[in-house]
Amino acid sequence: MGAMNAPTNNAVAANGLRKTYGDKVVLDGVDLSIGKGEVFALLGPNGAGKTTTVKILSTLIPADAGTASVMGYDVRGEAGAVRAAIGVTGQFSAVDDWLTGEENLLLMGRLLHVPAAERRARAAGLLDLFDLADAAARAPATYSGGMKRRLDIAMTLMGRPRLIFLDEPTAGLDPRSRHTTWQLIRELVADGVTILLTTQYLEEADQLADRIAVLDRGRIVAEGTPKELKQRVPGAHILLRFADAASLEAAAQALPEGARDDEELVLRVPNEGGISSLRDVLTRLGDGIAVEDLSIHTPDLDDVFFALTGDASPDLSPYPSKEQAR
Amino acid sequence: MTTLTIAAQDAGTMVGRELKHTLRFPLLLIGSILGPVVFLLLFVYILGGPIGGGLGTAARGEPYVDFLVPGILMMTVAAGSGTTAITVCTDMTGGIIDRFRTMPIARGAVLTGHVGGSVLRTLVTTTVVTEVALAVGFRPVASVADWFAVAGIVVAFAFALAWVSVALGLMAKTVAGANSASLPIQFLLPFLSSAFVPADSMPAGVRWFSEHQPFTPVVESMRALLTGAPLGNTAYLALAWCAGIALAGYLWARVAFRRGTR
Asked: Are strands A10-21 and A73-74 parallel, antiparallel or unpaired?
């Protein structure tokens, strides 16, 4: 990313965004820089400030402090130009329940001043692409959650936006619909569109995003590629399972650095050095202790998430861990 | 395209959307037809005898139905405010409004769409109610010009109440709340006007209120035009009230609409 210093080359450049509602600080100085063509995930628990960030960047609400430009335009001073460049699919269904699916798309086209013939062609194309052609003449009230979400995204695409905001695009969807939506998002990416998506699903961020920012209580607590984030937290370990308490006791004495769970009869031993450290653990265990099961764990985004957003693990210092076969 | 033509085009699109809603859910129309028709039948067939007799010369010698129908027409216009407040609130509490707000469309097109849709709906409902009134014995003596004047007052009054109803719909947190908030417009103000009985037959306090509130000149001017009574300056008074209400409603709606973006 050589574009960091030139805001005009960034799809999104935000600096020190703050927002409070009464006493509650929702955003506490958020900086973002998203390159064009990038898929950027804002990951965080409920109430972290994800939706507020999207609302500010999509000109819905003003920030109390800080600046933001979207596709090179200032979100406050040039809101009209920003709106012309973006498409937003909010967290809650933004379809007109009293119109049919097709009429919803045509309404978008009309409001975006797309000429009539092209409007119809685009609507028909999107209905096909999103597998909604059969439901085009029905009202969204009769749609499933997944269909409704697809229509929602299709409406966002009627204007051919260059930057798309997807606020929790798969919230409340069943696994199959979630995967369909992911596939759709990947197809958008292939067209060179920039995407800012928010999610509380780690897997989703891992699957879709080039870069992830972890948002917690209004602050970005970590940012990087999924791989970089995984390397930032401890979590690589060997999990040993035992048949009885006596074996666990013996193993815990042999490997005092391990964390034991007496109920589950497991011992969790930090594993820093791949094969050599595995050999070391096995050597120290010796032949006398019966191990029922052994598994090797590398940190996943879950570990990152809990380490970064939990109260229990304030230590964010980089911790060496190696990629291992899982 | 200039900003103004874009704004007009967007408003037109939104009016079209409201018309589609109405065609798909005729209940939006039927609700504001049924209420006034029930009152019409109630007052003509059940209460009309004693009221008409009791009024005597206060009704200026007209059959009670001729006195009543202009009031029912005004009530029909007022009944539309419930529908408008409900449709606006439905929009605001759904996700679609946030979509509109993030699109490059003329600000306020959503609201103008609702106002336009409301006025058009009212033209339909008042036409239907007028036909029912004719069927139950209403015998107006109005000329074609008088009818156009009546239609003009209906449109002006509908336009004014639509802006207030849009504001009510914007302020309401729930659809049920939006309907409740419009009840004074739908019932209280019509009853406390000279819609059903002349103001001078009312107790002193109510009478003062009735004589000075906007619904009375609206109904009096329509009554004069339809029954051939002297118009005086009531039509101007009615239009002045409509202009004032429309402006206040518009300003209120604008503030309420912006309130949603904090």
From this structure: unpaired
